[in-house]
């Protein structure tokens, strides 16, 4: 027999589902895991659009809601429902009357019958006064760019001239990009496969392994995905392994491996002829790495749940020739793919993450061979996580040489290079190549 909660969830209309998911994210639940737990249904795409869109414009929508209801802040679930409805009114081509009616009905289904008059009133007010609200929003930086104040300040500091364009690019929809396993198929041949299936795709402009799909597809519908012919990976992320330049016969450490995109790229780049150890401190996410390696038909020397800051958990005494250090970061360069970071990150997050990034560098640097190379990677545009971290590390170590590398599509920074969100339709990634000398 179906439980009461399960029955209630099943009977929820799509807008009720969207509000509940948004509420869970605002309470701290990871967005990706909420989607993984969902059974696909006919309204999944619509629910996803509402949730992702509301998160993308959350600072803007929350500001509007605070103006419309200045006397009191609604209860969290009521607020989530109101925000999803405001997103539909301002950003979707959904009939306004349908949004109002269905949102009021969703309140009933969510057990919020007492909030139905409130939802009805604020939505009808926004519809009546929409023109003046839009003007007021665009006059505010938070309303115009849809980022929290601390994010705006940090982007201004990091990118004094480019910050407005980068913020707007972070609100755009990201493309679905594939990485070809050229050991299995050439890019030209794979494009022919796509054409034969009436799937539109084009070669990437920066990475020789990249193909950009005109329309996203579920992975199960991507030709050759399950057989390891292709992997979903942004084009800028595909620059990491060539920058690290692993060669057959080398010992290589992938220090923060999950979810495994760069792990499999290391193996493809070297035809599997390296001794590769992949670690991640999250055992559950490490299973995704294992699945990706298996799907692509490779094996690794070691796959271990371990904290890269604690070498005693994984290091066996033989130095590495290459270390890929794709550090945990704020993700500000991939916000268009993960809009929930607008609500899950704070200014304090940047400082805490920066400390962890330096700890990772300090812990792994002694494990590198002389003349070995460590590639430091973030998917952040915030300078403190990038040149800020590398600059501090260089001050403390005299045995570091920087490689001057800036592949096409990236810009040189003080100590590395960076791709900018939206430019060439890629994500924002920072790379710094460190060689051990002395």
In total, the number of strands is: 13
Helix content: 40-55%
**What share of the residues does DSSP label as strand, in percent?**
5-15%
End-to-end separation in angstroms reads 69 Å
Q: Please, what is the CATH homologous superfamily of the largest domain?
A: Vaccinia Virus protein VP39
Give the low-confidence spans: 1-8
Helix-and-strand structural type? alpha/beta
Biggest β-sheet, characterized? Answer: 9 strands, mixed
Average pLDDT: 94
**Inertia-based shape:** globular
Query: What is the multimeric organization of the chains shown?
Result: single chain
Examine the coordinates and then state which fold CATH places here, giving the name of the CATH topology of the largest domain: Rossmann fold
Helix count? Answer: 19
Q: Give me the CATH architecture of the largest domain, please.
A: 3-Layer(aba) Sandwich
User: What CATH first level of the largest domain would be assigned?
Assistant: Alpha Beta
Total domains:
3
Provide structural commentary.
- This protein is of the alpha/beta class and 438 residues long.
- The chain folds into 3 domains: 143 residues, NusB-like (N-utilizing Substance Protein B Homolog, Chain A), CATH 1.10.940; 57 residues, Alpha-Beta Plaits (2-Layer Sandwich); 200 residues, 3-Layer(aba) Sandwich (Rossmann fold), CATH 3.40.50.150.
- Helix content is 45%, strand content 14%.
- The protein is built from 19 helices and 13 strands.
- Strands 5, 6, 7, 8, 9, 10, 11, 12 and 13 form a 9-stranded mixed beta sheet that branches.
């Amino acid at each position: 027999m179906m439980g009461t909660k399960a029955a209630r969830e099943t009977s929820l209309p799509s807008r009720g589902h969207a509000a509940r998911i948004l509420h869970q994210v605002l309470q701290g639940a990871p967005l990706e895991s909420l989607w993984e737990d969902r059974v696909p249904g006919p309204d999944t795409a619509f629910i996803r659009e509402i949730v992702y869109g509301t998160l993308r414009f959350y600072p803007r929508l929350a500001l509007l809601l605070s103006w419309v209801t200045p006397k009191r802040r609604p209860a969290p679930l009521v607020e989530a429902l109101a925000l999803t409805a405001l997103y539909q009114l301002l950003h979707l081509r959904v009939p306004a009357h349908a949004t109002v009616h269905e949102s009021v009905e969703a309140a009933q289904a969510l057990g919020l019958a007492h909030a139905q008059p409130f939802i009805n009133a604020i939505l009808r007010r926004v519809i009546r006064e929409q023109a003046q609200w839009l003007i007021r929003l665009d006059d505010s930086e938070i309303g115009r760019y849809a980022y929290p104040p601390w994010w705006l300040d940090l982007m201004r500091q990091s990118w004094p001239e480019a910050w407005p364009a980068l913020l707007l690019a972070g609100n755009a929809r990201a493309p679905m990009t594939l990485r070809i396993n050229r050991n299995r198929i050439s890019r030209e041949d794979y494009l022919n496969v796509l054409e034969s299936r009436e799937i539109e795709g084009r070669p990437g402009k920066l990475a020789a392994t990249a193909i950009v799909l005109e329309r996203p597809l579920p992975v199960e519908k991507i030709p050759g995905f399950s057989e390891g012919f292709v992997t979903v990976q942004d084009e800028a992320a595909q620059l990491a392994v060539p920058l690290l330049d692993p060669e057959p016969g080398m010992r290589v450490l992938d220090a923060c491996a999950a979810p495994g995109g760069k792990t499999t790229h290391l193996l493809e780049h070297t035809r599997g002829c390296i001794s590769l150890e992949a670690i991640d401190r999250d055992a559950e996410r490490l299973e995704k790495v294992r699945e990706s390696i298996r799907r692509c038909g490779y094996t690794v020397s070691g796959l271990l749940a371990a904290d890269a800051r604690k070498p005693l958990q994984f290091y066996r005494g033989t130095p590495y020739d290459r270390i890929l250090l794709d550090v945990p970061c704020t993700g500000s360069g991939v916000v268009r793919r993960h809009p929930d970071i607008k609500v899950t990150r704070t200014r304090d997050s940047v400082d805490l993450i920066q400390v962890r990034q330096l700890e990772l560098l300090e812990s792994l640097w002694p494990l590198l061979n002389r003349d070995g190379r460590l590639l430091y990677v973030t998917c952040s545009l915030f300078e403190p996580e990038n040149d800020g971290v590398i600059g501090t590390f260089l001050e403390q170590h005299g045995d570091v040489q920087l490689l001057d590398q800036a592949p096409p599509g990236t810009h040189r920074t003080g100590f590395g290079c960076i791709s900018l969100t939206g430019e060439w339709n890629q994500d924002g990634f920072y790379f710094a190549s460190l060689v051990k000398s002395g």
